[in-house]
Design a protein that fits this description.
Blueprint lengths: L13 H24 L7 H8 L3 H5 L5 H20 L11 H11 L1 H10 L6 H8 L3 H7 L5 H24 L6 H10 L14
Helix pairs in contact: 1-2, 4-5, 5-10, 7-9
């Protein structure tokens, strides 16, 4: 088991980052084990430490508790989903953006189910607004929307629908392929009203 006297284990260095990854992987591994057994329960710090092969003092050098660890994983997941939707260099919506999201969720269904059950759920509406800020004037004009406030209402409606749809898909076992989920979602919006659709080529 990893010793607790890690003087060089400081935030930002390679050893710290490796240990943080080890803790997160242990937590995710426990989620997968619960999924396989068909039983879900609270995951404790002790269980994470045993899985990671570390002492509790090492865990607390990285996180306050399990909710703090979950918050870190949730933030990373949101950034991951945003990366599926938008090109970070151009800010433009990626081709097959929605399919990308469903594919990413299907890679770790046990984790996203955990988010749905233990957090506010898959809610990225505020982050999407920030990501679209650079294209605001273009979007308002193209969608015949009168103001940023109106855009935010449309966006909140869209994101809530996407989250609810993803939740139903997750709880149903992700049976439909991401391509079908994308098609269902796109059919809800005509091309000239799909606020988060990529431009036609």
């Amino acid at each position: 088991m990893e010793g607790s006297g890690e003087i060089m284990n400081k935030k930002g260095n390679q050893r710290y980052e490796e240990m943080e990854k080890r803790i997160k992987n242990a937590f995710l591994g426990l989620l997968r084990e619960q999924e396989k057994k068909g039983k879900r329960g609270d995951i404790t710090v002790s269980a994470v430490c045993e899985k990671a092969g570390i002492h509790r003092t090492t865990f607390y050098g990285h996180y306050l508790d399990i909710p703090d660890l979950t918050a870190s994983l949730t933030g990373a997941a949101y950034e991951e989903l945003i990366g599926c939707l938008f090109d970070p260099d151009t800010g433009k919506v990626r081709e097959h953006a929605f399919r990308n999201v469903f594919e990413k969720v299907r890679e770790r269904p046990e984790f996203y189910r955990y988010l749905l059950e233990n957090t506010r759920g898959i809610d990225v509406s505020d982050r999407l607004t920030d990501s679209l800020a650079g294209r605001l004037d273009e979007i308002l004009k193209a969608q015949h929307i009168g103001s940023e406030a109106e855009l935010r209402y449309h966006q909140s409606f869209f994101c809530a629908g996407l989250a609810a749809m993803t939740e139903r898909w997750l709880l149903g076992g992700c049976k439909e392929p991401p391509e079908e989920m994308e098609a269902i979602l796109v059919r809800e919006y005509s091309p000239d009203r799909a606020i988060l659709m990529a431009e036609e080529k």
